[in-house]
Structures are given as C-alpha cells and as structure tokens.
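This week, study the protein below.
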Amino acid sequence: MTDASDPAAVPGGVDSTPSNREFMLEATGLSKRYGAVHALADASLSMRPGEVHALLGTNGAGKSTFVKILTGAVTPDHGTVLIDGVAQALGDPRKALAAGIACIYQESNLVPALSVLDNVSLGAQPVKSFGQLDRKTQRAQVSALLEHHRIYLDLDASVQSLPTVQQKQVEIAKALARDARVILMDEPTAWLSQVEVQSLFGSIRELTKNGICVLYISHVLDEVFSIADNLTVIRDGRVVLTSKVSTMTAASLAQAMLGRELLAESATQREVGYLESAPAALECRHLSQPGSFDDINLVVRKGEIVCITGLIGAGRSELLQALFGATPASTGEILVHGKPMRMRRPNDAIIARLGFVPEDRRDDGLMMSHTIRDNLIAAHLGQVSRGGIISRRSARALATRVVSTLGIVPARIDMVVRRLSGGNQQKVLMGRWLAGGTDILLLDEPTVGIDVGAKAEIYHRLRALAEDGAAILVISSDMEEALTLPDRIVVMSLGRIVAEFDKATATQDAVLEAASAGVSGNV
C-alpha cells in the first residue's frame, strides 16, 4: 500500500536528492522544416536541476515549435532530447509525460467544473479492486503532494471558483502528480496581476528547491530578470544567444531578439522648432475631475507625440477617458484644432476624429469573438453602409486596406481577433481608428503585454503617423519607452501635471523624481 507520508512514494513526491548528472534536460540540434520554411534549425538548450531557464523570441521565432518537440506534439526532423542523461523517444506526448516533461500553457488545461482534488489527480486516480475510485488514498496523496511543495489550495473547491493564479498552481500540482522533472511554462502570467505574478514566482522557487527545472517562456523582460537564472534567445528558428541573465540588460536582450536595437526607429529627432510652430491639434484648459485630476493644461501639436508618465494613481488614464468623453470632466475646456468641443460621450470624440486605445484591449477595446473586419469597421459603420445596410464589399475593402497598411498577421480579415497575438490585436485596435481617418490618437499603455518585435512595429507605426501629421498622446509606465518614443514627456503626480521635459533634456532620474513629488507625504 502507498505510504502517503513519504513524499517520494506519492505521485509528485519528487525525491530532492540531486542527480549525479550535470544536466536534467539536454536538447541538442533540434530541427523542424515545414515545406521551405525552417521553423527550427539546429536549436540546442540545456538545463540543470533546480534551474529556471527563460526561452525568448518574437512571435514566429520558433519558441512554440521548440516546446512542441519537447512535449512530443511535434516530431523533429533531426535532434535529440535527453532527460537526466536518458535519450527520449520523440513525437509521442505520452512518452514525454512519462519521462517527466509537463507543460503549463497560457490557456488553462483544467476542467473548470471539477474540484482541485479531481483536477490534480485526473487520469492518475488510485483505484480499489473492481476499478472503484479510492477516494481516501486520492485525498491523502494529493494532500501530501501539496504540503511537500508548499502549495496551499482547498481540495474541494471547484477550479472555476479560483482566481487565475490559483488555477496556475493547480496546473503545477497536476504536473507534479505525474512526477514532472521538467516543467515548461508558456506565458504563465498573461492574465495575472502583479501581486499574482509574485505569488506564482513563489511557487516556481519552491519547485526549484526540489530540483525541478522550469523552462519559462515569456515576452515580459522584467519577469525574466526577476525569476530566471539563464536564458536562450531564438530568432528566425535559430538559437542566437545563450547567457546568464545577470550579464544581460533589457536593451541587449531586445537587440538579440530583434537583430537590431528596439528603439532605433524612434531615435531620430525632428527639429524642435518645427514642432513648436506646428498648430495645436488637441488642447485642454483647466480640465478637472474631482478625485481623479485637477487643473490640467496640456497641448498636443499636429505631428507630435506626447507621453504622459507617472506613478499608478496619478490620474493619467482618467484624463484620457475624459478627453475621449468616456467619463466627462466636471470643469474645464477641450479644444480640437482650435475649436471648443464638449466631450460628453465617446461619439462626440469620434465625430471630432479622435481615437482611443484603452489599456485593457480585451475587455475595453476589442470584440474578441468577432473578426478583424468587424473590429476595424465598428466605429465607422456609416462609411461602409448604404441605406442602413452594411456593404460587404465596402467593409472588405476598408478592412483589407488597414490590414495591409499596419502589417496585421495573418492578413485574413475573417479571422477571429481572439486568435491573434497580443501585438496584432493591438494593431487591430489602432487600425479601427485609422480606418476612419482619425488624426488625434490617444493610447493608454499601448505596448503592455506584447513582445518586443510587435513593440518595435508599434513604435514605427506611431512615428509614421506623427510624420504624416497626426497628433498622438500616449500614457506609458515603461520608462525606456517614455524617454525614447515621444517628442515631449509630461509627468503627472496626484492628479496634477508637475513637470514637462523635451526629449533632448529628459533623464530617468529627473522624470522619476518629478513623478514621486508629493507622493511620500500623502501616503
């Protein structure tokens, strides 16, 4: 009979005795070709017991193919995979799982209506004679497993009732119940808050204490620096860099992933005199909203990119929402191309040719279950309708033009937006406004949650729009972005504008000092 008190005797009770071998995972020379396309070419990666290794690359770089080969979902044309020195049969998911390789995907792989207990042991439940489920042993084994790995969950709670971070912990426990020694985590923090991210990191660190190695796939570079020991960068199907995380910077990582500097497209500055003499496209005078912002005076000129930065709670998002009419300001004046406008609702802003890209594109911006075409025409139905009926030909022509202009991939206007990468979803949201000839664009944290390749493309598109005369107002908490992308930086603190810098004179220390002004005295 199984002794549930012995961690090594229960499913997932991994023996923490270090292996005699240097590497737990050795993937060597992995290659996969689809027709003329090399999805992966001679890629190698090694991981020691207890190591967190980050796998980085832009969309289409080959990360997914690499992961699919490790999990047995794809058979490579060439290459080998060793687990603790033992060569593995490739192309068989069951054998990969039996060898100790488990994957936690971005989308949940749990059964929502079942309990934590049943999800963890699903497919590996202990049974009595005649095939009857042994509930007592099942509970003892799972309890011992969670206790051993310091995962604190209510076994009887349904998974669908749990917050996302605890659902990730259930998936970790499920992997451990199958004696996983290598756990692949594919964008595990995509739906998590910062507090939840730190909680997940705590769980990962507990895993590594027991000799389990984690392959961490993410495009969030700050997370890589926080949790990973080593990293590998794949570009165009080839490994271009393997390094200790401690020797890298965000800029050097981005350059490795892109093959060029991330912000090279934005590095050139136009003549300051040109922008100073350009007419004002958007202006607000003494704009106030009690509890959010107070006495805001701001000008964004034609052809200019202005970035508002500051700490959380500074009132930046609320200001953008007021400019777009989503939450109208209580007092003050908004002028568009010199003409006073009353922004009482978003339609007022749309008529004035303003566009707004919110921070949460999934919940507040896009219709995730609708097509690219439907999302692009949503704010401009009048342009593609005749007699109140949408013209399919006009809608197709408009959508096709925007997809081509912004380089949305794949270029299929009938594809559901949910299936696009984060960067392409953001392009669709930007394209919605460009489709109608918007010449003033408001963007709230436009590059959050997208990889560095898509980020570079968005920077390029915003700069091109400005060169064509558009006025662009961006909110960003990314200090590198705030210092490099715009022509001018405005700092907000506690609902007020407290400082303004041009690109040539702004420094990170000066901006952070301004953003923190008065905050400590109000905490």
About this structure: The mean pLDDT is 87.
